[in-house]
């Protein structure tokens, strides 16, 4: 009989996997089996995962397909997904930079920066927007899947005339419209387009060369000239890619149906870039998480402020400023975010005690697989012995 470990190792390296040293193969095999099972059972079309321990790769692999029809495989280093609400920590990091630079004050009135926003019964602050305690409502009806070419400023027409759900600071309502308002305030306060500020303050410094805004897709896929260059910045020292290359690297987005999967409806997420619009690779998102472990971005006090849970009526919300801040079922502290968008599902979890980062991207609207992802993460955390 063939040695099962040798067979496993053969499959391991045949699947675009990168391994660090000293990995517990038993824990790794269990995690791998769980993730591969999601594809085999047709619960997801494809998945990309990057796991880092002390900044070194523990697991990096694509499962399933970026395109079911063309049978295009996923490469965790280069295949581009929608990141959904994992965009919020990226936006929050840019906001923290703006606060550090004295351009925005978290506890100043939002109206100091956007005076034309319709007045509500109560005033509210950027801090309350970032912590989902301002009373801004969540999506209604088909708003989750709009396909309108809104600018950030124009998009507030969707919700600007609605009342606050509660007095700011007295309740919690998770939503993405609050981050639309934050990105608008950042633009107005700085005089710089939100996406440009993020490029130069977050993406470029961290070397996130495979992280993009949706605008390149909308602006270039219809163009005849496939040599158009798009990139994360505007100066010649930064990496640029052709529209054709990017189109070939982006996944197809799917929705699960009873018989399998269908292509998701088209959406335009540019207006809610801060709340759920970025596109990226699992490797880039892991790189972003590692920067928080290494302390290479934000000073310790600012990092702590954004990663501390808000309190409502004396109880924690388990949400800081753009970051989920909680513990898993075994009591291990983590911070990060879960995301769900049209054609996308995402996880970013950072475990400071274990010095581990988990980045998972799936090309399907909420496939109901979080429990399995949690089990795979738990297996990999177990190998650290903590």
In short:
This protein has helices spanning 4-13, 25-40, 87-100, 126-130, 152-155, 177-190, 194-203, 215-220, 243-249, 273-276, 282-294, 300-306, 370-382; strands at 46-53, 56-67, 72-73, 81-82, 229-231, 240-242, 254-257, 260-263, 279-280, 311-312, 315-316, 324-327, 333-341, 344-351, 356-362. The protein is of the alpha+beta class. The chain is globular and about 55 Å long.
Largest sheet: 7 strands, antiparallel
Low-confidence stretches: 1-22, 216-240
Give the strand tally.
15
Helix content: 25-40%
CATH superfamily of the largest domain: DD-peptidase/beta-lactamase superfamily
Query: What share of the residues does DSSP label as strand, in percent?
Result: 15-25%
**What's the end-to-end separation, in Å?**
36 Å
Question: From the 3D coordinates, which CATH architecture of the largest domain would you assign?
Answer: 3-Layer(aba) Sandwich
N-to-C SSE series?
A: HHEEEEHHHHHHEEHEEHEHHEEEEEEH
How many domains? The number is 2
Q: What structural class do the secondary elements suggest?
A: alpha+beta
The count of helical stretches stands at: 13
Strands side by side in the biggest sheet? 3-2-1-15-14-13-12
CATH topology of the largest domain: Beta-lactamase
From the alpha carbons, calculate the radius of gyration and give it in angstroms.
21 Å
Tell me, briefly, the overall form: globular
CATH uppermost class of the largest domain: Alpha Beta
């Amino acid at each position: 009989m063939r040695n099962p470990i040798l067979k496993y190792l053969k499959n391991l390296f045949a699947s675009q996997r990168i391994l660090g040293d000293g990995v517990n193969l038993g824990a790794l095999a269990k995690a791998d089996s769980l993730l591969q099972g999601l594809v085999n059972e047709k619960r997801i079309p494809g998945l990309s995962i990057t796991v880092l321990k002390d900044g070194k790769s523990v697991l990096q692999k694509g499962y399933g397909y970026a395109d079911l029809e063309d049978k295009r495989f996923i490469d965790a280093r280069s295949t581009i997904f929608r990141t959904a609400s994992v965009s919020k920590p990226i936006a929050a990091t840019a906001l923290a930079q703006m606060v550090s630079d004295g351009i925005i004050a978290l506890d100043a009135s939002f109206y100091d920066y956007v005076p034309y926003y319709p007045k509500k019964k109560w005033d509210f602050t950027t801090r309350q927007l970032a912590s989902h305690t301002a009373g801004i409502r969540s999506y209604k009806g088909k708003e989750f899947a709009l396909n309108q070419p809104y600018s950030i400023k124009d998009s507030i027409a969707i919700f600007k005339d609605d009342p606050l759900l509660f007095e700011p600071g007295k309740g919690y309502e998770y939503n993405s419209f609050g981050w639309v308002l934050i990105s608008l305030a950042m633009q107005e306060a700085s005089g710089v387009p939100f996406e440009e500020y993020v490029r130069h303050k977050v993406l470029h410094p961290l070397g996130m060369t495979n992280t993009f805004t949706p605008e390149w897709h909308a602006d270039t896929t219809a163009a005849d000239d496939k040599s158009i260059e798009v990139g994360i910045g505007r100066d010649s020292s930064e990496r640029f890619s052709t529209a054709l290359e990017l189109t070939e690297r982006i996944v197809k987005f799917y929705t699960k149906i009873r018989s399998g999967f269908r292509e998701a409806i088209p959406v335009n997420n540019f207006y809610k870039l801060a709340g759920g619009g970025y596109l990226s690779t699992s490797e880039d998102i892991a790189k972003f998480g590692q920067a928080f472990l290494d302390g290479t971005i934000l000073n310790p006090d600012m990092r702590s402020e954004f990663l501390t849970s808000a309190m409502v009526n004396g109880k924690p919300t388990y949400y800081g400023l753009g970051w989920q801040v909680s513990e898993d079922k075994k009591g291990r502290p983590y911070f990060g975010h879960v995301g769900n968008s049209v054609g996308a599902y995402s996880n970013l979890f950072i475990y400071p005690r274990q010095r581990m980062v988990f980045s998972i991207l799936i090309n399907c609207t909420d496939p109901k697989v979080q429990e399995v992802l949690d089990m795979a993460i738990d297996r990999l955390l177990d190998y650290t012995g903590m």
